[in-house]
Amino acid sequence: MLLSTQLEVTANGETLKCEHVLWTGWPDRGVPDNYLATLRLVRKMAPFSPCLVHCSAGIGRTGTIVGLDLCQKSLQAGEKVDMHEVVKELRKFRHGSVQTDVQFVFMHAVILKLAENRKAATKDQVKPFFDEYTAYVATRQ
Predict the structure, then answer these.
(1) Which residues pair with 20 in a beta bridge?
(2) Nearest to 60 by CA among 19, 101, 108
(3) Start and end of every Tyrosine specific protein phosphatases domain (predicted)?
(4) Which sequence spans correspond to the domains of the chain?
(5) CATH number of 27-140
């Protein structure tokens, strides 16, 4: 579940308005059940700069969201996405980003769901991945 709160911070006579989004359905060191909610969150934060993303340790859920944002921006620019390279780049700036193997595989699942939604892949084409993914995640959480 995503909870959104509007905040106003005032200091020295200046007021900054910001939105705080709290995702209560994403377990620590795990992955959420909803791929589309993840895509919606990444799309929602895309126009904002600066944007602060954080979780308990600042590497698992945070790294996954920031990595997916990087993937989406690369895809929008017509570039190929190599998830290993995305995580490698993240880890140059934040050691341990994308904390677990399940989070790494989840990133693939989200991008494949995006491809399916954009009609770049059919449901039949991605079904074998999602069948294996579902079974894998069940053993890891």
Answers:
(1) 5
(2) 101
(3) 33-105
(4) 27-140
(5) 3.90.190.10
Express each pLDDT in 5-50 by its tens digit: 999 989 999 998 888 888 888 989 889 988 888 888 888 888 877 7
Per residue in 114-126, pLDDT (tens digit) is: 999 999 999 999 9
3-state helix, strand and coil shares in percent for the chain, rounded to the nearest 5: 50, 15, 35
Angle at 53 between CA 129 and CA 38, to 5 degrees: 30
**CA 30 to CA 26: how far, in whole Å?**
7
Tokens coding 117 = 């939604």
**In the numeric block, which tokens belong to residue 110?**
């989200």
How many angstroms separate the CA atoms of 13 and 9, rounded?
10
Write the pLDDT tens digit of every residue in 84-125: 999 999 999 999 999 999 999 999 999 999 999 999 999 999
What amino acid positions are annotated as catalytic residues? 55
